[in-house]
Amino acid sequence: MALISILGGGESGVGAALLAKSKGFEVFLSDAGILKPTYQDTLRENQIEFETGGHTMDRILGSQEIIVSPGIPEKTDIVKAIKAKGISLVSEIEFASRYTKAKLVAITGSNGKTTTTLLTYHFLKSAGLKVGLAGNIGQSFAKQVMEDKHDIYVLEISSFQLDRCFEFKPDVAVLLNITPDHLDRYEYKFENYIASKFRIFQNADAHTSCIFWTDDEVITANLNQIPSSAAIKRVSFNGPADAYISSDKIQFDGAELLLADAPLKGPHNAINMSVAMLAAHEAGVSYAQILASLPFFENAPHRLESCGNWNGVEFINDSKATNVDAVYYALNSYQQPLILIMGGVDKGNEYKVLDPLVKEKVKGLICLGTDNEKLKHHFGSIVPQLFATDSLEDAVIKAKEWATNGDVVLLSPACASFDLFKNYEDRGDQFKNTVKRLIHG
Predict the structure, then answer these.
(1) What value does the mean pLDDT take over residues 369-384?
(2) Phi and psi torsions of 345, nearest 5°
(3) Which of 26, 226, 255, 373 is at 20 to 30 A from 163, Cα to Cα?
(4) 114 marked among binding-site residues
(5) Would you say residue 300 has pLDDT above 80?
(6) Same-domain pairing of 413 and 390
């Protein structure tokens, strides 16, 4: 019996283990950390061998194939050893896609993936289709494939997952945008990150709908990476496109959406909605059905999420904005004066692109992190007032002190959260709770 090893015991790893077991493989799951008790119980119930707190290299290197968690970098010793032996090393997405005949809609990009994925899922589900939600969101793709209850899946796909996809071929492939992110995983070379994102199109043919935002200069400069036989669908502000975004509406072939009626605001969300509507349409849903279901969409938390109003000051949780481009979109979504809370673990950010918007809109910058020097150095001469702290409570108190009626206090960090918080969700939840406690007493 062929051995498949799984590196990483999170949602995707345990799901991959279950699918592999159901397909008759001997399965061994190895995690350098400690697995959640619920995952341990699941593995035991299914008689899947696992280890925690380290890796048994001899056992792992005896595998026919290894499924790797997206959180494990290529530069780790164990990945280097696997590659040196020439063992097949794939992502959960690659592995699971072999075992389903369901239609696949895959969405990637530096920003807007989750909103666009949830929108697309909402359109398909509202149309009555049996649809699964997976990838970076929802339950494990592999586990859902094993249960075989869906005719179509909407997958939010990261560059890390794409790095270990080789035969993966979605029916609808979406690339929203590309801006510098996670460069520490790509030898600090932007071109490596770009190539990773374009892997979503690598197996496209005439039966694949390839959707992208054509105004993105990085995407348009690399269109030669899309196979020439693929069916191209474009979104644009600037000219003829399958979804053309003007100042007041989005126009499709035989349909239009007035932006004033849309549940999501801001230019970036106009792109997200356009792409999601095109993706759902390419997957078989009519524009009439899509437009009818759009008003009932509720976005995920931590994405420009209103979390309280105090004396005419609105507090916004945008903790999911973990890179500079996401902050750019957030700043562009408001006309009111802003008090901006930024900071965390810098990922090699270049903040210069934010300067015009910060000068125009930000009346005060609060730097929240254990190391705020880079932010202070860059923005110190740009903003009228700046405050640095490693205390979320102090940050909110300072924001209240500076704010006046009509202002917006915006948590949009541009950075990872791991210096002070477990993850961006924890950061956003703590911000909401702190705001609630301090403004409602």
Answers:
(1) 96
(2) -90, 110
(3) 26
(4) yes
(5) no
(6) yes
Assign residue 350 the CATH number of its domain.
Answer: 3.90.190.20
For 7-11, 180-184, 269-273, which range has the lowest pLDDT when averaged over its residues? 180-184
Q: Do 208 and 328 belong together in one domain? A: no
**113 annotated ligand binder:** yes
71 marked ligand binding residue: no
Residues 313, 258 within the same domain: no
Tell me which residue of 170, 46, 149 sits closest to 97, measured CA to CA.
Answer: 170
Q: Which structure tokens are listed for 89?
A: 């090393």
Instruction: List the domain range (segments joined by +) for residue 267.
Output: 94-296
| pLDDT at 1 (0 to 100) | 78
DSSP structural state of residue 190: H
State the burial class of residue 425 (Cβ atoms within 10 Å of its Cβ: 0-12, 13-18, 19+): middle
**Is residue 116 marked as binding?**
no
- 338 and 415 within one domain: yes
Other C-beta atoms lying within 10 Å of the C-beta of residue 306: 11
- Say yes or no: 281 and 320 in one domain: no
Boundary residue ending a domain (45, 65, 90): 90
Where does the pLDDT of residue 441 fall: very low under 50, low under 70, confident under 90, or very high at 90 and above? Answer: low
Does pLDDT of 440 surpass 80? Answer: no
**Is 70 exceeded by the pLDDT of residue 288?**
yes
CA angle 217/223/225 to nearest 5° reads 130
Residue pair 206/181 in contact (Cβ under 8 Å)? The answer is no
Q: Are residues 196 and 76 in the same domain?
A: no
- Give residue 181's pLDDT: 78
d(CA 441, CA 435): 9
As a whole number of angstroms, the distance between CA 406 and CA 427 comes to: 25
Residue 111 counted as an annotated binding residue: yes
Do 192 and 260 share a domain, yes or no? yes
Average pLDDT for the chain: 94
73 close to 124: Cβ distance less than 8 angstroms: no
195 confidence band (pLDDT: 50, 70, 90):
very high
For residue 34, what is the domain's CATH number? Answer: 3.40.50.720
Question: What is the band of 285 on the pLDDT scale with cuts at 50, 70, 90?
Answer: very high
Name the domain count of the chain.
Answer: 3
Q: Consult the annotation and say whether 311 binds a ligand.
A: no
* Domain end position, chosen among 31, 55, 90: 90
Contact 127, 285 (CB under 8 A): yes
Nearest to 110, CA basis, from 320, 319, 294:
320
Query: How far apart are the C-alpha atoms of 67 and 17, rounded to whole Å?
Result: 9
What is the DSSP secondary structure assignment for residue 345, as one 8-state letter? B
Least Cα distance to 275 among 322, 241, 314, 240 occurs for 241
110 annotated to bind ligand: yes
